[in-house]
């Protein structure tokens, strides 16, 4: 147990930035996920994701981008894609030295976003 916020446990802004780098390296190397980002300026995307994650983990609320429904609408993202991104995030967190319990907390914080992100094939459709 710790009184630290999840944001602090992740190493605040610098820690999150390095995890986000690892996450998008993995996404770029994943032949199913990479095609979603062909038109994307990755430097902006990484900044938006880092700000979003800071806010979502109890850090400063500097995210000024679209809400998750609007950001992902019409992209045909599937449940399997969502699970892959969570898996890549867990691997990037682990590589950054984050312990398993904290990784589980980050995943739990992201899971409720599934319904807003997934607009393609769903498992239970
Ligand atoms: C918990 C999971 C996810 C989170 C927290 C997340 C977060 C974000 C954020 C913060 C943005 C930027 C919105 C803006 O610029 O205003 C974004 C855009 C985007 N996301 Fe996600 N996302 C998630 C899952 C996914 C998945 C599973 C995919 C597809 C594989 C995906 C594909 C995209 C694409 C293509 C964009 C638009 C990039 C562009 O502007 O060109 N996201 N996401």
Protein described:
The protein is an all-alpha fold and 125 residues long. It has a single domain (10-116), classed as Globin-like. The protein is 58% helix and 0% strand. The chain has 7 helices and no strands. It has helices at 6-9, 12-28, 42-56, 68-72, 79-95, 100-110, 114-117. Helix 2 packs across helix 3, helix 2 (12-28) crosses helix 5 and helix 5 (79-95) runs antiparallel to helix 6 (100-110). It is globular, with a radius of gyration of 14 Å. The termini are far apart.
Helix % is 55-70%
SSE series: HHHHHHH
- Give the bound compounds: protoporphyrin IX containing FE
CATH secondary-structure class: Mainly Alpha
N-to-C span: 39 Å
Please state the overall shape, judged from the principal axes of the Cα atoms.
globular
Return the CATH architecture: Orthogonal Bundle
Which consecutive residue ranges, at least 5 long each, have pLDDT under 50?
none
Main sheet attributes: strand count, strand direction, barrel closure: none
Q: Please give the domain count.
A: 1
CATH topology: Globin-like
Q: Please give the oligomerization state of what you see.
A: single chain
């Amino acid at each position: 147990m710790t009184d630290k916020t999840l944001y602090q446990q992740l190493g605040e802004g610098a820690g999150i930035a390095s995890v986000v780098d690892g996450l998008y390296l993995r996404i770029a190397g994943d032949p199913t996920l990479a095609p979603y980002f062909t038109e994307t300026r990755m430097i902006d995307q990484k900044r938006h994701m880092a700000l979003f994650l800071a806010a979502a983990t109890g850090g400063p609320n500097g995210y000024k981008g679209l809400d998750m429904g609007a950001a992902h609408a019409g992209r045909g993202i599937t449940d399997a894609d969502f699970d892959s991104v969570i898996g890549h995030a867990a691997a990037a967190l682990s590589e950054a030295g984050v312990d398993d319990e904290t990784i589980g907390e980050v995943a739990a914080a992201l899971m409720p976003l599934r319904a807003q992100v997934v607009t393609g094939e769903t498992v239970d459709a």
